[in-house]
Every structure is written in structure tokens, then in C-alpha cells.
Amino acid sequence: MHINSPYFGLRKEITSIVQAVAYLGYQNLKDYIFVLLTSSLLKSADRNEIAKILKQAFAMRYIAEKLLPAHADEAFMVGLLDPVLKEVEKEEIKKILQKAGVSDNIVMGLLDEDSSLYRIKEFTKKVLSFCEKVSKNEQADLKDTEGLSFSELDEICKRAEKEAKALVSAL
Which residues lie below 8 Å from residue 132, measured CB to CB, with a gap of 6+? Predict the structure, then answer.
């Protein structure tokens, strides 16, 4: 995927990094690069699996925007990195991330059950499972909504799905 793909909806071709940063903004460019790096770590994953990972990451961001706004971007990173834990031992991923300068909040969100981002990660998984069951007209129950309404949770699921599909189609 490149910045001139239909995903970004440009009217004029971007020809430099400066233009890319100006168009996307630093945060979006950082997210985009992080997605590319993470997807290269998950080389064995197919497009559906990558879409599922991205959906979780976007849902984590949107839930964190409501519950822990200052850490929404870190929640997104935790969502992207969570599947890597299946392929890399916890201590190894901890060393790699710390060496790469990844924030302690992200590392703790992946590994520490007592951290706020870890709890958001687990809550997000329950929300996504709930939304999937509801979309299939299956019996679904979500005991704790963390103070979010069912309409907010539904909107989060839909937004995350839309963002994930758009990004995967551009890869």
C-alpha cells in the first residue's frame, strides 16, 4: 500500500515524505507505518486475519477514547501487537519492545493484567465477540459495558470494522 492508493482518497499525487506528513498528519503516518511493520511480523496471516487484528486495534482505540482518552493511541498499538504474543514469548517481546523504545504503557498493556490498557484489551475482545454474535442474530450477553451504552458499543464495532476493511483493501 502506498499513500497514493485509493484508501487515502487523494486528488493530487504525493511525491515526498514532507507532503505525506503534511497530508496524513504525523499520528496517521505513524499508525500506517506501525501497521505495515506489524503485518510483516505476522507474515503467515492472511488478509482476513490481518483485518481481524486491525479491527481489534481500532476498536481498542475507540473504546480507549471513551474510557482512557489520553491513552487511545497506545491502546491501538496494544491491539496491533497482541497477536504477536502468540508467536513470540512474553519475555522476548518485552525485551524487543523496550529496546525499540515502545512506551511502558504499551508493554504493560500487553503483559500486565493489572494495567488499564490490558483491561481495555480484554474488554475489547468481549465487545467484539458480543457484536459478532449480535450481527449473526445469535444469543449474546455482555454483563459489564464499562458504562458505555449498547449503541456506543455497536458504533465502535461498526467503525472498527469499516476502518479495518478499508486499510486491508489498500494493502
Answer: none
Q: Which three cell numbers stand for residue 139?
A: 444469543
* Residues in Cβ contact with 28 at an 8 Å cutoff, skipping those fewer than 6 apart: none
Judge whether 112 and 93 are in contact, CB under 8 Å: no
Q: Terminus-to-terminus CA distance in the chain, angstroms?
A: 4
Polymer length of the chain: 171
Please choose, from the candidates 100, 101, 98, 99, the residue with its C-alpha nearest in 3D space to the C-alpha of residue 111. Answer: 98
SS3 state of residue 136: coil
- Integer CA distances (angstroms), 148 to 39, 63, 69, 96, 127, in order: 31, 9, 14, 35, 11
Following DSSP, what letter does each residue of 117-162 receive, concatenated? HHHHHHHHHHHHHHHHHHHTT-----S--TT--HHHHHHHHHHHHH
d(CA 131, CA 154): 7
Question: Taking the CA atoms of the chain, what radius of gyration do you get in angstroms?
Answer: 16
pLDDT at 143 over 60: yes
Which grid cell is 134? Answer: 449480535
The predicted-structure confidence for 101-128, as pLDDT tens digits, reads as follows: 778 888 899 999 999 999 999 999 999 9
Distance CA 80, CA 74 (A): 10
Give pLDDT tens digits for 6-34.
444 555 555 554 555 565 555 555 555 55
